[in-house]
Specification:
The chain is about 50% helix and about 5% strand. The chain is of the alpha+beta class and about 325 residues long. It has 2 domains: about 130 residues, no CATH class; about 140 residues, no CATH class. The strands form 2 sheets. The protein has a 4-stranded antiparallel sheet with strand order 1-2-6-5. A two-stranded antiparallel sheet has the order 3-4. Helix 5 packs antiparallel against helix 6, helix 6 packs across helix 9 and helix 9 packs across helix 11. The longest helix has about 30 residues. The chain is globular. The protein binds zinc ion (2 copies). One zinc ion binds next to loops. The site of one zinc ion has 8 residues, from loops.
Amino acid sequence: MTNNINLQISIPLDDDGYLDRECPADACNASFKVHADDWLGKVRDEKVFCPVCGHTETSDHWLTEEQVEYCKGRMLQQVMPVVQNMLQKTARSFNQRQSPGGIIQMSMTVKPSRPIVVVPLEAAELMRQRYTCEVCGCRYAAIGAAFFCPSCGHNSAKSAFRETINTIRKLPQVKIALDTALERDDAANTYRLLLEENMGKLVGTFQRFAEATFEALTVAGSIHPRRNVFQNLLESSDLWEQAIGIRYEDMISMHDWQAIQRYFQQRHLLAHKDGLVDVSYIQKTNDAQYQAGQRLVIKEDDVILFVGLVEKLADALINACHKGNDAEG
Ligand SMILES: [Zn+2]
Ligand SMILES: [Zn+2]
């Protein structure tokens, strides 16, 4: 007796026809959306790219936790009558002691959820960024920066960078939306988490931007930077000097350079030390505001200042690369 049951379960879309997706890579688990028409028409079953981290996986691995729950529910709805029917039939010919669990077994793994910042819809809408791949036309969306086209994997770091800068500048509007939707303490708490999260997004988007800028250089083929080097300002400064003959320190003012380094180091503490200040942070930044053991306090002004600095450095970098390439040619 074979028990093959084919189930078709439709997953609901959002009002704009986008399908929610979640990256299966444990280090990422980013949520994003792909337009349903493009998910069906453009994205290939063999290979889907996570827009945030670039992880690739076959197309059946991108269900969100809610969708897994939803599918389980729908599956039971569809399977139970079949199971009951089968049980009735098999009861006649099968040993009565046969346990129902032996007939159909279903399993689905649900990833443990990591803490995520839950923001009210209106605030989330302000932070949502939509993209259309400049190569294949696939439409996708993410809260915050996304770099890779889910369909063709094209790295659109440069346009994503500008988008992200503009979105982060909307944070004060997000604050207003939070204050309207939530209790005061909840609003303050959520906003604090959002500010910290956006420090990370800013470094992430700058990193992708710098990578893409570097890859476009004629000399890039002969230099092989280590992974994540562009998260580290000093180390990547060495790299630029090697490639185009100028360091970050010489692209912007000393004051800006010190400030941007401090924010990069703060992002490092938030990402790897739960935001706790350590001796190494103080040695690297000379930040007199803190002592080792204290917790960082990220304010809205800091993030807005950081956005301005990152944009300034990115523009200076583009200029320097043009000059470098002109000199070469
Ligand atoms: Zn991912
Ligand atoms: Zn594409």
